[in-house]
Amino acid sequence: MMKLSIVIPARNEAGNIVRTLTGLREHLDQAGLHNFEILVVDDGSSDGTGDLVRIEAERDPRIRCVRNPGRSGYGRAVACGLEHFTGDAVVIYMADASDAPEDVVKYYYILRDEADCAFGSRFLRGSKVYDYPRFKLVINRIANFVIRLMFNLPYNDTTNAFKGYRANVIAGCRPFVSPHFNLTIEIPLKAIVRGYSYRVIPITWRNRDVGVSALKLKEQGSRYLYTLLTVWFEWLLVRHDTRRADGEVFQPWPVEPEVSPERPADAPGRP
């Protein structure tokens, strides 16, 4: 089986992290996807988040905790996790339980059988969104509309952090330069510009029940703009230099779906 890594950046998420880990582990095991690792990156937490993760790791060796050794920041924490994951594919997952573990299973089969990248959208038919703050929703739709225009994309939720990539995509999109939430657009836009295949599916998202989001829109605007323009200029001027090599063309994971006992009957991509 393809090994799946799940990278979870966490800063002061003591109120959420155990529930997030438990939900992920139980759902993946129930789906028959036992070959996985959950890698939590403790991003300078002061509330014992790392200690809680290490307790869970003692119970299940598939859970690991690493500490971001440098300056804190969502992008820096994710980049740290992407330096340490060991799977054939990786999913970036939020520590606040806003992402649905059943969507991780869907991503798994996309990455194994269909495409280099698995992207979710909260704004497609079949998506479910709970308690999205109204102001953030308006800003989100404007930002994604601008991204779609600039890159001529059909994808309408590039800013969503919850995405999956094959390991070769992560290698092909380095170096990562976004230290904060702007990394959520840097990786997928680089992957698209550099010629990696992707599939988009509707996903479920719910607002956190505990704690406060670290995303501050007033602080992030200039950072998103910097990242957006950097990748856009790559697309306009030098994309032939950075585009994936011919030898990197996607090949499905060599497992026949019809003989995989773990595959649920309604999994995406099943004949």
In short:
By secondary structure, the chain is of the alpha/beta class.
What attributes does this structure have?
single chain, 271 residues, alpha/beta, 16% strand, globular, disordered C terminus
How does this structure look, described?
- The chain has 271 residues and is an alpha/beta fold.
- The chain has one domain (4-248): Spore Coat Polysaccharide Biosynthesis Protein SpsA, Chain A (Alpha-Beta Complex), CATH 3.90.550.
- The chain is built from 8 helices and 9 strands.
- It has helices at residues 17-30, 49-59, 74-84, 101-113, 134-151, 167-173, 183-193, 217-242; strands at residues 4-10, 36-42, 63-67, 89-92, 117-121, 128-130, 163-166, 198-202, 204-206.
- A 7-stranded mixed sheet has the order 3-2-1-4-7-5-8, sandwiched between helices.
- It is globular, with a radius of gyration of 18 Å.
What percent of residues are in strands?
Answer: 15-25%
Radius of gyration: 18 Å
End-to-end separation in angstroms reads 19 Å
The biggest sheet amounts to: 7 strands, mixed
Helix proportion range: 40-55%
Overall geometry? globular
The CATH class label is Alpha Beta
CATH evolutionary superfamily: Spore Coat Polysaccharide Biosynthesis Protein SpsA, Chain A
CATH topology group: Spore Coat Polysaccharide Biosynthesis Protein SpsA, Chain A
Structural class designation: alpha/beta
Number of helices: 8
**pLDDT < 50 stretches:** 255-271
Sketch the topology as an H/E string, one letter per element: EHEHEHEHEEHEHHEEH
Q: Which strand order does the major sheet show?
A: 3-2-1-4-7-5-8
